[in-house]
Amino acid sequence: MLSRSILNPLACSPRRSVARLLTAAVLLAPLGVRAATINVNADSSQVWNGYLTVYTNGLNHPTPPAYLSQWLGAGTSFPNQSSIDDAGHVACAPDIWCDQNYPADTWIWADASGTSTGICDVVSDFYVDSATIANPGDTVVFTGMLLTNTLAAPYKTNATVFIKDFAPDYTWRGGATVNLSTLTNGQAFGVTYGPIAGAGDHVQWGVEWSGPPARQTTVASLGSVILSTNETMPPAEKTVNVSLDHHQYWAAYQTASVGTPFSAGYLGAAGAPDLQGTISDSDVVQCAPDLRMDKLYHTDTTIWSDATGLSDANPGVTVDSTYYVDTGTLAATGDTVVFSGRLLTNTLVEPYASSIVAFIKDFDTGFGWHGMVTVNLNTLTNGEDFSISKVISGDGSHVQYGFEWVGPPARTNAAAASYVGNLGQVLVTNQLVTTAVGIVAINPNPAQVKVGADVTLTAITTGAGLTYQWSKDGVQLTNGPGVAGATTNPLVLSGVQGAAQGTYTLVVTNSGGQSATKDAQLFVYNPGWLYFDRADAPFNGYINVWNGTNLISSPPPSGSAGTRPKASFGFGVTPPTLLRASMDLSNDVITLQPNTYVYDNATNAMDPTYINSDGSPAAYLEQDYFIQNNALVGDTLVFAGYCSSNSLDPKYTATAWIKVSKDWSVECRYDTNLEAGRPFVLTVPATATANQAFVQYGFAIWGPCNSATNPITQGVCEVRVYSPIALNRSANGVDLSFPTVVNHHYTVQYTTNLVSHSWNDLGTLAGTATTNTISDPLSDNTRFYRLLTW
């Protein structure tokens, strides 16, 4: 049977955009507008979607009902073997998603061996969906060119380019296709459909192909089809220069060995952070020792010398990590690819330091090997450039460039000898002209600073004869109390208070008058009074699942002993709004509802991971909406808020929580239930956060996995920010005190008569991350006070 750890919110309506559904009703063509001809093509600036449907009633028989239906997301490439590059080249090949996710499902494959052939039909789509491109009566024309079609049967005769017309609710209107097998390489195609039936219709155009699912190891032999927007002939041999560009798709591949192969596989972009391969928005690549083995095999003595979670790897255990770009449109046979960059720093210890290389690798369409070139980064000094080149001898289907490093896996626990923080890193950026002024990065950015603490902002710059000027929120800084280095690098802020929160800008100028500018955000927090603060948006989403023999029916106990029983598994949710959790950033109101996308989008309705055979839920979920700030480790934490309403069904429990952990093998959760009309003040002592590595805080809804059509999922829990107000008499009247948070404002109001509902402002102030006081001379005999937070 099927099980899945990542589910898509739109799988039950594969081509449906929720945002578009909400607006489709008002997208009416104005009266008197004439029908138009709308021309579309393979435009990489459009939002492309991936989708596949599996039919298990035989090969090449797409007859409903579908066994599995999956929207793969919106992007530029998908595991149904579809992609588009910046030049508008669309590439499609037989699906390997089924092999990646369900390699032994006997409804899909001839047997459960993991190597057998497919026995079903997979229909794959790669397309654009627009509800605004055409009006009723318009005609849509999709044009392009077939560059190559090497697909094997039956895929070759089942590949089409199409236009489809759906009503706003995705009721089928009609469509038109051109079969690509009727075209020769280099021949143009045109698909015409019209008239568009109604206002707000979803017009889709793209490629559809079908056939049995393919295995990853043999898919290359089944060929591919490549379309183009405007090419007419293969380009002449050329030299292509590549560098570090965060707009490219940087993926990860890992091979772990314990003397013999232990695991190997493509991890994509999502798996790269655990390999410690990242690229920043300013095109700085970081490479460091692997953490994935620690996260997945934390106590596995095949990898580690003991099961304590602190031990080093066994002798001979190595992880080969690769962080790279793979492109099939960069170069062709005979072209020269040049990969260049600049080493910023290399603090890796051995054996990692001597193993890390920059590379170009050359594979053909079947991943046949055509060689590689490398440069060892250990041979470079900081600031030194590298440049390597390779003449492509394959067909250019898979030209890869990036970085590769080898060594034992590292630990996430700071108490371990092989703690990753002790092992160093490599930072690489683009090759830059030495005299050109530039700011590669400012670290840390953003900076999370505890009130009263010090912080240093350090810039990585290029150029000669540089001068520096730091500003805060547009005002130039000068050296003085709490500020040092206003005209140097780095900038040091000491004894930081709430007023220090803001945007810090560095302007660097060279001797020729050329300048560069870069911003860094600084946030000030008080661990003794934390809000779920809009300043920390965007927030995080995660789901923990208990099912099978591990099924529970209420939130499990936790605390210093850890959550028990531990979840069966869990997965991140992006964007977290899929959890039906959100914050109105204009008023800090947090809305929480039971998640339904897991149940509704378990693509096989009989999936025992989430759904029993009678349709009842088979899983109990913890859906978390949270902030992570590891700088809170070692402090006493106070997390506060106010539950303004809670209409959740009794089957669900809403909680506020703080979680700490050394490495997430044990999660220590401290929580309190959210009750309507009551504030919560959750305190975790410093003894509980000391010697930890991670801190998170936020909200959870606990309850059964259920459907959006079930009335019990319609309740809502609402939470607002909160500070209590305390009154102390003084010789001059009363002092009204309350804890504050930066980025918020506070107004104390009073009335002499609660019946009148008339309140007067006593004073307003901005939050300072400390306790603030407003005094009242108290001229009346009786006064009532309240505090407004905004």
Describe this structure in words.
This protein is 4% helix and 42% strand. The chain folds into 5 domains: 18-228, no CATH class; 239-429, Sandwich (Jelly Rolls), CATH 2.60.120; 438-525, Immunoglobulins (Immunoglobulin-like); 534-720, Jelly Rolls (Sandwich); 726-789. With 790 residues, the protein is mainly β. β41 (653-661) and β42 (668-673) form a beta hairpin. Strands 1, 4, 5, 6, 8, 11 and 13 form a 7-stranded mixed β-sheet that branches.
Brief write-up:
The protein is mostly beta strands and 790 residues long. It has five domains: 211 residues, no CATH class; 191 residues, Jelly Rolls; 88 residues, Sandwich (Immunoglobulin-like); 187 residues, Jelly Rolls, CATH 2.60.120; 64 residues.
Portion in helices: under 10%
* Average pLDDT rating: 87
Distance between the termini: 51 Å
Strand content: 35-45%
Main β-sheet description: 7 strands, mixed
State Rg: 30 Å
Low-confidence stretches: 1-33
Number of helices: 6
Number of strands: 51
Computed structural class: mainly beta
Instruction: Characterize the overall form.
Output: globular
Tally of structural domains: 5
Outline the fold blueprint.
Elements: H1 18-24, E1 37-40, E2 48-55, E3 68-74, E4 77-78, E5 82-84, E6 90-92, H2 97-101, E7 121-130, E8 139-149, E9 160-166, E10 172-179, E11 188-193, E12 202-211, E13 225-228, E14 239-242, E15 250-257, E16 261-268, H3 272-275, E17 277-279, E18 285-287, H4 292-296, E19 318-327, E20 336-346, E21 357-363, E22 369-376, E23 385-391, E24 398-407, E25 426-429, E26 438-443, E27 447-450, E28 455-462, E29 467-472, E30 475-476, E31 483-484, E32 491-493, E33 502-509, E34 515-525, E35 540-547, E36 569-572, E37 581-584, E38 589-592, H5 597-600, E39 619-628, E40 637-646, E41 653-661, E42 668-673, E43 678-684, H6 686-689, E44 694-704, E45 717-720, E46 726-730, E47 733-739, E48 745-751, E49 760-766, E50 771-776, E51 784-789
Parallel strand pairs: 1-8, 14-20, 27-34
Antiparallel strand pairs: 2-3, 2-7, 4-5, 5-6, 6-13, 7-12, 8-11, 8-13, 9-10, 9-12, 15-16, 15-19, 17-18, 18-25, 19-24, 20-23, 20-25, 21-22, 21-24, 26-28, 28-32, 29-30, 29-33, 31-32, 33-34, 35-36, 35-39, 37-38, 38-45, 39-44, 40-43, 40-45, 41-42, 41-44, 46-47, 47-50, 48-49, 48-51
